[in-house]
Amino acid sequence: MRFLNFPYQKIATRYKGYKIQTYIFGTGKEIVFAFPSFPHSGLYYIWFLSRYDLSKVKFITFDLPGWIGLSDNIFKTVPFSLGEFVEVAKLILAKHHVKKYSIVGYSFGGALAVKLASDQKEKIKNVALVSSVVNGVDVQKYRIGKLVNFLYGIRFSPLLKYYVERTYHKYKASLNKENLPRGYTTMYENMINRSSPRVLLTSIYTLFHTDWTCYFRNLKGLRILVANTLEEPLYFHKQAEHMRKVLKGCYSIAISGNHEDFVLKPKREVVKEVVNFLRGRLVK
After folding, report:
1. Is 0.90 topped by the overall pTM?
2. C-alpha count within 13 angstroms, C-beta hemisphere, residue 39
3. Which residues span the domain enclosing 238?
4. Alpha carbons 34 and 17: distance in angstroms, whole number
5. Is residue 233 part of a domain?
6. Phi/psi at 124 (5° precision)
7. Residue 184 φ/ψ, nearest 5 degrees
8. 30-35/57-62 β-pairing
9. Nearest by Cα to 79 from 87, 68, 71
10. Is residue 184 domain-resident?
11. Strand, helix or coil at 174?
12. Residue 1 in 3-state DSSP?
């Protein structure tokens, strides 16, 4: 299958009897496993990667169950846990016979990346955490944390899905101006419709009640990049400060724009810097 100017693969993986939609971008020997940001499909990394030579790297990602995408919602019968997302990732890596890899986690995906990297530290080369949340408990003191607690308390998950839909429509106009294949934005809207309001709300509530600093501390000795966009909410910057204090010596970069721009409005120089880091090249 071809998107923009490069091919990619869509592969269904079975997990506990459910279909998990995985994606492979690129043909290079150096492998990067990528967790998307909440609540997106792994497919949206394809727009980010269109700014890079994918003959030099291979990205593997997937649609998290219950989020936007084509994966089955495993949480219809399995109790929700963030660890379940990580176990799905381990299965995908095993199915593709990945021995060594780098990992990138964006926003919510940063917490999952930290847990997976801690569990498989011997396999990890480099770690990039972009606008990530590692100590979600700290976020509860901010407005977003209080709002999520309120919504979860009254079990009003449809409001969160409505917010997701509205946020996407805000970016849809700018995406339509780009050289996207016909029907791409409609396809993504259909994937949004497949997402589970309950899983979306439970995911973000659980993240904001989880502190995975202990797993992040376990990454000592690895090359770690901590990046932030300049105009994103304060709590993301506080998370980055926290990570840099826990593990001194992390590489750092600042990215112009707001939180969603890293993937939805990617800049070629930023893509190059992050992917080169994951491939073992130095940052500035």
Report:
1. yes
2. 33
3. 2-136+210-278
4. 23
5. yes
6. -90, 135
7. -60, -50
8. parallel
9. 87
10. no
11. helix
12. coil
Question: CA nearest 120: which of 152, 161, 75, 90?
Answer: 90
Give domain status of residue 158, yes or no: no
| Residue 163: inside a domain | no
**For residue 149, what pLDDT is reported?**
94
- For residue 88 the two structure tokens come to 């799905």
Q: What sign does the dihedral 135-137-142-143 (CA atoms) show?
A: positive
Report the run of H or E that residue 113 belongs to, with start and end: helix 108-119
pLDDT at position 177 is 62
CATH of residue 237 = 3.40.50.1820
> What is the CA 199 to chain-centroid distance, rounded?
16
Higher-pLDDT residue of 122 and 188 is 122
Helical pair 197-207 and 108-119, crossing angle rounded to 10 deg: 70
Task: Give the count of domains, the chain.
Answer: 1
pLDDT digits (tens, 9 = 90+) for 130-147: 999 999 999 999 999 999
Name the maximum alpha-carbon separation found in the chain: 49
Neighbours of 17 (CB within 10 A): 8
Four-residue CA torsion sign, 45, 47, 53, 54:
positive
Identify the weakest region by mean pLDDT among 27-41, 107-121, 186-200, 203-217. Answer: 186-200
Residue 4 pLDDT class (50, 70, 90 cuts): low
b/e 239-261 (16+ beta carbons within 10 angstroms → b): bbebbeebbeebbebebebebbb
Count CB neighbours of 234 within 10 A. Answer: 9
